[in-house]
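haha ok so turns out i had the wrong file open the whole time. this is the CORRECT one, sorry everyone. sequence first:
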Amino acid sequence: MSSDPGVTPPPTDTPEIIPAERHYVQFSGPRWFFTGIVRLSYRGWTHVAAFLFPEDSRAERIALALHIPLPDKLNMSWITPHLAVGGRIRPGDIKALAEAGITHVVDTRSEYSDDPQALAKEHIVRPLTIEQMLQGSQWVQERMEQGGRVLIHCEHGVGRSVLLTCAVLVYGGMNAQDALQLVQQKRWQASPNHRQVKRLREFESAVAALRSA
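then structure:
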């Protein structure tokens, strides 16, 4: 592990996932709206800070000495000691990811075969399918059981990666409502949209059906 203060190590005091009763997972419109405003403001500050305080520069060292809040070097949040969620990673982030303990990465941006630009133009966002979520959850669970630490990311670490992260927790025995609450407690940017929350409910039902079969 690195001693770099910009690299956050995995938590060591996160409780184990305990199976619980199913509760109806709810979509929060107000949270989605207000966190959206905060995310836009944070994104704007990220661009400003990158220009004013480049990494490893004298300006950055001065900003840190003056306790000016700079954007996180790694756009990721630990959910459990073996599971993290975040946004896009750049080539320059790979070494820092390894120093943080990440051994495997799941990029949910590559799950689609449709033209993303064409979909975005029509304001269409398609959640991961139940089959993709089952395959992804099983793969991640196996890596974690082997001692690996997995980062699940999308572009901003808000919706798609949060959906799959919650699915991994549900697959591991947690109910969907508790899974979503845990991810949102650990990552303030986590705010899946209505379709994604609906898909999480469907996934929870699918997992319950598989276990009772």
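Residues 29-52 form the longest helix (24 residues).
again sry for the mixup
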